[in-house]
Amino acid sequence: MKTQKLVRKSLKDWKRSVKETQKQCYVSGSQQDLEIHHAEKAFGDILRASHEALGLEYHKDSADYNEADLEALIEAVIEAHKDVVPVVLNKDIHAELHKQYGKHVNMNQINEFKVQYIKNNNKKVVD
């Protein structure tokens, strides 16, 4: 299995907690096809920083890690998510946000995107 996919799977409890708290898309208010955006710090950056902190070389395939290193990596990524600003977004809105702003999108950009989305779709702001 790809390392990134395996590590993302280890975040299922964190994702569930975020979705239970936020319950709807921050931009549209939709409750369909929800994903979590990592505001301020992209998942790839967290994964890379975790490797560096542990002194591990990155491997695309998780089978290329020994069991102890892989467990340490997963723990480090889970721990790093305590400092992540999660924003629940509809899948299509999330894709459009990255299309407009690129890989690293902060809260100011998300709020700017939300205002534009509401203006373009004649919708009320959902807080």
How is the secondary structure organized here?
Blueprint: H1 3-9, H2 12-22, E1 34-39, H3 43-54, H4 67-80, E2 85-90, H5 91-101, H6 107-121
Any key phrases for this structure?
127 residues; mainly alpha; elongated
Care to describe what's here?
It contains six helices and two strands, in the order ααβααβαα. The protein has one domain. The mean pLDDT is 92. The protein is mainly alpha-helical and 127 residues long. A two-stranded antiparallel sheet has the order 1-2.
Number of E-state strands: 2
Estimate the mean pLDDT confidence. Answer: 92
- How would a textbook summarize the main sheet? 2 strands, antiparallel
How much strand content do the residues show?
A: 5-15%
The domain count comes to: 1
pLDDT < 50 stretches? none
**In terms of structural class, how would the helical and strand content be classed?**
mainly alpha
CA-based shape: elongated
The strands making up the biggest β-sheet line up spatially as: 1-2
Count, helices: 6
Can you give the helix content as a percent range?
55-70%
Q: Radius of gyration in whole Å, from Cα?
A: 16 Å
* N to C succession of SSEs: HHEHHEHH
